[in-house]
What does this fold into?
Amino acid sequence: MENLCEANIPRPEYPRPQFVREGNSINLNGEWDFSFDDRDVGLKERWYKKESSKNFDRKIIVPFCFQSKLSGIEDKSFHEVIWYRRGFEIPKQYKNKKVLLHFGAIDYKSSIYLNGEHIGSHEGGYLGFSLDITNFLEDVNILVIRVEDPSQDLEIPRGKQYWKIEYDLIFYPRVSGIWQTVWLEFLSPEFQIDELKITPNIDKSEVIFEININGIGFSELGLFIDILFRNQTIAQENINLGFLGKIGRGKIKKVLKEKIELFHKFMHYENPNRFKFKIQIPEDKLFLWDIYRPNLYDLSLKVQNEETGEIYDEISSYFGMRKISISDFGNKSQRILLNGKPIYQKLFLVQGYWPDSLYTPPSDDYIKKDIQYVIDFGFNGLRTHQKVFEPRFLYWCDKMGVLVWGEIGNAFRYSVKSQLRLINEFVAEVERDYNHPSIIAWVPLNEGWGVSGAERDPKRGYYTSALYFLIKSIDSTRLIINNDGWWHTENNDICTRHLYPPNDSLPATLEDEIKNHKTSMEMIYLKPHQYKGEPVIYSEIGGIGYDFKERLEKKWGYGGLIKDSEGLFEKVLELLKQFDARKEWIQGFCYTELYDQFQEINGLLTFDREPKFPPHKLKERLDSMFF
It folds into this structure.
């Protein structure tokens, strides 16, 4: 039986930086048994049974997909069904605990078996899920996972994962199976914190917490909250939880009503364990999060018996006090504000592939290195393009002060099935990543992918609008671009445009911009909708190809390829000067892209993250431009 405490396992970090339980988890990354099931006979032959090890003829290193080099397999051909298997034992100190099995992400559809029993399923390649495995545990446990990833299904939110064998142009290798951390977590069987939603309100110098606590019988229970900034206590709260778990009518003590809001006020039938409360931040201790000072507050939540002192659950997290909004500064177009001040957005398009590991960053240091390059080039944010990035990536954006547009991989065929699949995953993404201060915008659709023909079919425009309202109903604190690049509807917070060579001439004025909306290659607004003064951002520009040191046989860029580093630098600077000249009405840009992707050589870094020219050279010029 494998030692679960072995050193040097890949990606050993705790995967949820905003929902950390210290010292009671076990990372299951490392070597697993693996098999392709190209004839799809595994279910019929019961490969999920404990004695089925003979069916697993390979080894794979989790959490790397089988298409990647770091997985130990590196097979990029079509394999629609794959299986994983590994054994584990529960350490003695956790024998009486509730045991959760967590998956960071499995692409695309997974069925989970433990000791020969089916214990759960999940569909969706970008977001994680958890299963309570307590009642299925034995002394020696065998975990088996069956994954289906239809290589050519265009109704799946697949983003840049190509549906052909050889990747080409703007499309890249597929990612199948486990591609984020798998881990076990051990909890009190009586009470657990299930959810934590944090909403800052800088105007009132307060923070709103929304919490769900799982359990029955809370009369002696307290929720102890500590907020710290740089190890100094800022605020503390102790809430007796006796009001929870009572289904029906009833009044709350007056002292609690001042702090706590139960949903439906005195009627709390739907979820009697969910509530929210506010904590005031002293005004002299209000330190805002922004790109220059990414101030973060540390948070500790403890569920404890007030009589005996027994601690049932303890969570550590963090949050940032910041506000993103839109305001009219007297111009004909509105401006985007961060904490009430205009913020000019200098973003990189970031697609989240690594040469040897594809979707999965090889280590935490690789994540930090990419984000640091954004800063080194003089930019202040990034657009996570056609992929949901893992929480640790967002954590480092929070820590390092980099703005983020959150996106998801789109489907490429319009149908009820593709709509439901994207909606389910995007809602889960917004819920999972709600607490990250770096995220300032959500992008559910890109360039009409998944809604092709929207200019002819009104239903597809209705769907685009519906996505805006759905996301706003879940997260009203951020901006939403309902269809990035074109085909906007009336319900949209930012007017975004895409501009690539050879057609890379910008309108001279806002008036020219508005006229251009109707004559551009793709309609910027679906009829009958039109521009209403929202901020304008060119959310894809550049795409200037340069094969640094002539390393690639197959290469592609949006325009003619540049021949040397100096030529690339001058071309980039010339383009950004055009935006600087229009900064009064264009509120930002997103440059394609930070680093090359396989055959696509549009990056300012190579795929191996080698700068094509010194980053400080561009930063020095950008620091004297814009605002």
Q: What stands out?
A: The radius of gyration is 25 Å.
